[in-house]
Amino acid sequence: MKVVLIGVGQAGGKVTQALAEFDYEMGFGAVKSAMAVNTAGADLRELDIDTMLIGQDRVKGHGVGGDNELGSEIMADEAIEVMDGLEGSLTSEAEGIFVVAGLGGGTGSGGAPVLARELARIYDVPVYVLGILPGRNEGSIYQANAGRSLKTVTREADATLLIDNDAWHSAQESVEEGFDNINDAIAQRIGLLLASGEITEGVGESVVDSSEIINTLRPGGMAALGYASAPASEDAGENVNTITSITRNALLTGMSVPNVVEAETGLLVIAGQPDRISRKGVERARSWVEDQTGSLEVRGGDFPMESDRVGALVLLGGIERSNRVDEFMERAREAHEAEQEHQRDPAAEFKNDKLDNLF
What we know:
11 helices; 10-stranded mixed sheet; CATH 3.30.1330.20
C-alpha cells in the first residue's frame, strides 16, 4: 500500500522517520514521502526526513509545553501551509495518508486531529492516524491529553490505528531504550503491513493487496495490529501448526493494544517464503481469528518475502468494544479531572453565591 507519512510532534516525527528508514532498507517502496511537523525546532533538527516548523509567531520554536489546545490552534492556523509542503508528494500513486502522532504530548495530540480533518476535506484518499497512547507510568497530563485527542481523532480520521506504549515496553528497559524499541517495533509491524501488495521477490498463492487493508479499516474508529513470528520448516506441510501458533500469539499476546480480540473486521497476513506457507495453515488460522473476534469479515492472504521464518500480521478494525480502550479512557478521565482540580482558583470560591458565609 503506497502511502504518504506526516509525523506531528516529537514522537510522531521519530516514528515517521523509523517507518521511512525501514521501508527504504527493506526495499518495499510503500512509503512515497515522509515529513515531520512540529512546534519545537530542536526536535526537528534530530531528523533526516523533510521537516516543517509551525507556530513560530506564537511559541518561537520552543514547543507548546504539553498544551494540546495550543497545539490544536496552531495547526488550525497553519494546516494549509503544511498541506502546501506536501505538494508533489501526494500524487496519484498514493493510496492513503497516515498522520503519525503521540497522543499524549501537546503538538501531536492537538495537531493530529486538526490535520486529519483538513486532509480529509481536501484529498480523496483515506486519511488514517497512527496514534501512540502514553503508558500507565507517564504523567497525568499525557493521560488527559491522549483521552481528549483520541475522542477527537477517531471522529476526524477514516480510522485510527492505535499503539499502546505499554504493549511493547519491557520493565527492564530505561525510558529512552523503551521508546527506541517501541519505535523499532512500530516500524517493523506497520512497515510490513504497508508493504502488503507491493511488488516483491516471490509469488504467493493469495497475495494481499492494498484494497484489503483499506476494507479492513473501513469501519472507522479504532484499529489495532498484532505480530508474531517463528522459524519455518522448508516443507510447507510441516508449517501448519507453526502458522496457527504464531497467529494465536499475534492476536493474544502481540497486539498493539493488548487484550483486544473483539472486532468488526480482520485481516490475517502470513509473511514468508511462498513455498514454506501452508494454505491449510493459513485457512485454519483465518477461521480461528473469525471465531476469536466474532467478525464475519476476516480476510487472509500471503506476503512473499525472503526469510527462514514465517510471520503473522493480524489487523483488526472497529475495536471500540475493547476493555483495554475502556480502561485507558477511564484513566484519561480521572487524569483530566485531577488536572482541572489542580488548576482551580481558590479565590473563585469567594465569588460563589451558593456557598454560605463562615460567619
